[in-house]
Design a protein that fits this description.
This protein has 235 residues and is an alpha+beta fold. It is 50% helix and 24% strand. Helix 1 packs across helix 3 and helix 2 runs antiparallel to helix 3. It is elongated, with a radius of gyration of 24 Å. The N and C termini lie far apart (69 Å).
């Protein structure tokens, strides 16, 4: 992680903690972050919901048990209570971040998110292809955002379901500040086939608009040349 100072890493971790805490409030309010008018969101939190809620329940039971077991040890009781409550909030915060920060398809770009940990903006004109591609991350290789040969994987509950191939690389910044050039992105969406269809349509629309603009520019340039030729002949 060369080039990233210790203080920068601390700042980024603190920012991550703040983002999932804020996400809890947005979750309660049933609102989403960074989804504008005309944007199309694609959720991905459903795949991990059962796991997160199960772990949260276990943590809550452990907290209640420790309250009883350590009632005669006030210092230990307070320390463990704070740790366990924070753990429960963390688990809920991870799910809240996933729910309130969906992937967002806009008019010009596709923003992919990994909860409060990472965001990657991909201009639509850089997308060469998009396909439904269900994959399960192998044990021992399930590292969030692990990049190799320009590959970025944003797995949810050990799976990705959409693969993007890019014409030009984009820059992905990891949680601790490491920057990586990405040419292929695998991510999960709860409605993966719907996401694929929407991205394809958006990419086609951008390509058509670019072609129309290029045609108009070419026509305008040709018209100007014709006018110049006519004016030159009349002199």
């Amino acid at each position: 992680m060369s080039g990233v100072t210790v203080w920068e890493r601390v700042r980024r971790v603190a920012g991550h903690e703040g983002r999932w805490l804020v996400s809890l409030g947005w979750w309660v309010a049933r609102r989403r972050i960074g989804v504008g008018a005309g944007d199309r969101p694609f959720g991905y939190g459903a795949a991990q919901a059962a796991i997160v809620y199960g772990l949260t329940f276990v943590c809550a039971v452990e907290t209640a048990a420790l309250v009883v077991l350590l009632v005669d040890h006030p210092v230990a009781h307070l320390v463990m209570l704070v740790i366990n409550v924070y753990t429960v909030l963390t688990m809920l915060g991870l799910q809240a971040a996933a729910v309130t920060r969906p992937h967002v398809l806009g008019a010009d770009s596709l923003r992919l998110r990994d909860g409060a940990r990472m965001e990657v903006d991909i201009p639509l004109e850089r997308i060469a292809s998009v396909r439904y591609d269900l994959r399960f991350t192998k044990a021992g290789k399930q590292q969030k955002g692990a990049g190799r040969d320009g590959l970025l994987e944003l797995a949810v509950a050990g799976q990705t379901s959409v693969t993007l191939a890019l014409r030009e690389p984009v820059m992905a910044v990891r949680l601790l500040g490491r920057r990586t050039e990405v040419r292929t992105v695998r991510f999960h969406a709860d409605d993966a086939r719907g996401a694929v269809a929407a991205v394809r349509a958006a990419v086609a629309a951008v390509a058509a608009a670019a072609a129309a603009t290029a045609s108009e520019s070419s026509g305008a340039a040709a018209g100007a040349e014709d006018r110049e030729a006519v004016e030159g002949a009349g002199r």
